[in-house]
Amino acid sequence: MPSVAELRIYPVKSLRGRPVRQAQVEPWGLAGDRRWMVVLPNGRFMTQRQYPVMATIGAAAGPAGLTLSQAGRRPLTVPFPEGSPETVAVWRDQVPALPADPAADAWLTEAIGTVCRLVHQADPLTRPVDPDFARPGDSVSFADGFPLLVTTLGSLADLEGRLGRTLGMDRFRANVVVAGTDAWDEDHWRVIRIGEVTFRAPKPCGRCVMTTIDQELGVKAEDGEPLRLLSTFRRDAAGRIVFGQNLIPDGPGRIAQGDSVEVLERG
């Protein structure tokens, strides 16, 4: 039976992720996942799409707040912010967020090379999932659109075989990586159970230039791979390049490495 090979949390949207052995599933995603975000001075979200160097910044969430790190620089611990929320933008969504300590803004401005600020999501229940793919009450963190993303090692192996080199899964920024499936089997998942938690899989994940960014070096591939190759055989009916499945949890629970992954409904 397929099983969870890897779990990964991204404390700050578009910064480096960190592997975990187990995670608590909350209605809006894994606990601690993408509840922080870097924004421009006007509150617009920032990602590796425009700022690839963000991949080189580490982020570790803890009970006291967030620790930021980057090679060659002194780490910075940022406490959870308090006070009145402001409004920031994630795509078309206007989301309440609490501004972090100005020291974090200065640290990230130097690390990224662009004036920016750090914010923490005030209440994830205030950001609903796209109603075209969700049920009333479904909500999401600062993730692009859905609470979780699942990918499979079988699909990665097929892609690497076609490309002729190793990529690694980190550039696809999945929360859950599954072993023991055929390549692209996840295309047909509609409802799955991981450990004790059931998830809906409403749509495949559309991919962008972030898949071309080396997550260790923070630089884009000059040849545009693997996005260029994916574009030749991995497009959905609307023409979007896809890899992996978005997930929405049907309830809270805990998932862990080694948990079985059962496909309850296919489509």
Number of strands: 21
Domains, number = 2
What is the CATH topology of the largest domain? M1 Pyruvate Kinase, Domain 3
Mean pLDDT: 97
Form type = globular
Low-confidence stretches: none
CATH architecture of the largest domain: Beta Barrel
- The CATH homologous superfamily name of the largest domain equals PK beta-barrel domain-like
Folded structure, characterized:
- The protein has 267 residues and is mostly beta strands.
- It folds into two domains: 3-29 and 129-266, M1 Pyruvate Kinase, Domain 3 (Beta Barrel); 35-126, no CATH class.
- It has helices at 102-112, 153-163, 227-233, and strands at residues 3-9, 18-20, 22-26, 29-30, 36-39, 58-62, 65-69, 76-79, 86-90, 93-99, 117-121, 148-152, 176-179, 189-194, 197-200, 204-206, 213-214, 219-220, 242-249, 253-256, 261-266.
- Strand 17 and strand 18 form a beta hairpin.
- The chain is globular, with a radius of gyration of 18 Å.
- The two termini are 19 Å apart.
- The model has no long low-confidence stretch (mean pLDDT 97).
Features of the shown structure:
267 residues, mainly beta, M1 Pyruvate Kinase, Domain 3, 2 domains, 3 helices, 11% helix
Outline:
This protein is 11% helix and 36% strand. The chain has three helices and 21 strands.
Note the topology.
Blueprint: E1 3-9, E2 18-20, E3 22-26, E4 29-30, E5 36-39, E6 58-62, E7 65-69, E8 76-79, E9 86-90, E10 93-99, H1 102-112, E11 117-121, E12 148-152, H2 153-163, E13 176-179, E14 189-194, E15 197-200, E16 204-206, E17 213-214, E18 219-220, H3 227-233, E19 242-249, E20 253-256, E21 261-266
Parallel strand pairs: 12-13
Antiparallel strand pairs: 1-2, 1-13, 3-4, 3-20, 5-11, 6-7, 7-8, 9-10, 10-11, 12-19, 14-15, 14-21, 15-19, 16-19, 17-18
